[in-house]
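Entry type: protein chain
Record version: 2
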Amino acid sequence: MRSRLQKKGMTRRQFVAAGSLALGTVLSGCAARLPRSLETGQTPRKSFIDMHVHVAGIGTGETGCFVSERFRNSFFFLIDMWAAGVPHWRIEEAGDQLYVQKLLETVRESRTTARAVILALDGVYDAQGRLDREQTTLYVPNDYVLRLAREHGEFLPGVSIHPARRDAIEELDRVAEAGAVLVKWLPNTQRIDPAERRFLPFYRRLAHHRMPLLCHTGEEYALSAGDQRAGDPKRLLLALEEGVTVIAAHCGSLGEEGGRTYLEDFFGLLDRYSNLFGDISALTQINRRHTLSRLLDEEVMARLLHGSDYPLPFFPLASPLYFMGRISFSLSLRIQRIGNVLDRDVATKRGLGVPESIFTKAEEVLKPRLVAWSSSQGPGRRALCQGVANVSG
């Protein structure tokens, strides 16, 4: 099932040129008009679900979020908040609220994305199943994303539950009843080993609720990581055997073990499990730029979903100019000038040959939970959610 397409890299000179051009483009503040095929593809209205969107914060406005002191003082945190539209001098004042405000504006102004699955992130838990704040880098509570999704029809709630917490099953039942559309894990950072058999009851409960597990695969560098081997796709075998719908975030695009890449492991699992999918979030980033071409195989593409990994697809981490040779120079510049980061991510992927079926696949895979989410809302909210899904681009 591996793609027959060959990896295409960039010379150092091309890389430097691309970076310089992208910087010039960003600084120019120009807006470009793209061919309609890249703006809207074959879809006549904005209708996509971006199923990999992060929310974050430090707890302003009693959101319940927190970050570790080490991460709070890191350059990456400041860049992450800047990319999300939060200037560093306002983080302490209203960082959480400004983050959501900018995200909401970005989705509403998008020509392609109608709804975003916003992701909670549970913390690290000790041997007694208690939250270990000292070891937790970033914490975004489930109630926060559920509340945001209830308040804004553009959002869908993606919760996070560490399977070792004392009340993991009870919490899963609670959020399933509240209409959560998936559970998100970042095992490298949360210190979860998905292969532990003590998590069997949790997997069986996920399957019972028809709740997909969106699990980071591959190595992790954005947040602090424990054992990078936790991102090995093969560690998801137990969940797959129990019938859980597993979405391998990033398709194992970074890392290897025993001379075999995690991407190759992902391909091998696709052959064996029809309940395994992958998301293509972050694959326009410079450190993952060789992955997408290997995924554009007819059989593989049928199992892929679109996600952006917002707010990470920003320059210089992500740019169409890093794909010169596969996207023409002139088109790369025009895509780079798109102001909306979600639309720029979609246009870059379209320029690389990603078909419309991938952008619309989330609706199919998440369907049971989308129905549950709609049912959990009142009649007025159900109408609003349906209206957001059908809004014209």
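Comment: Confidence is low (pLDDT under 50) at residues 2-32, 383-393.
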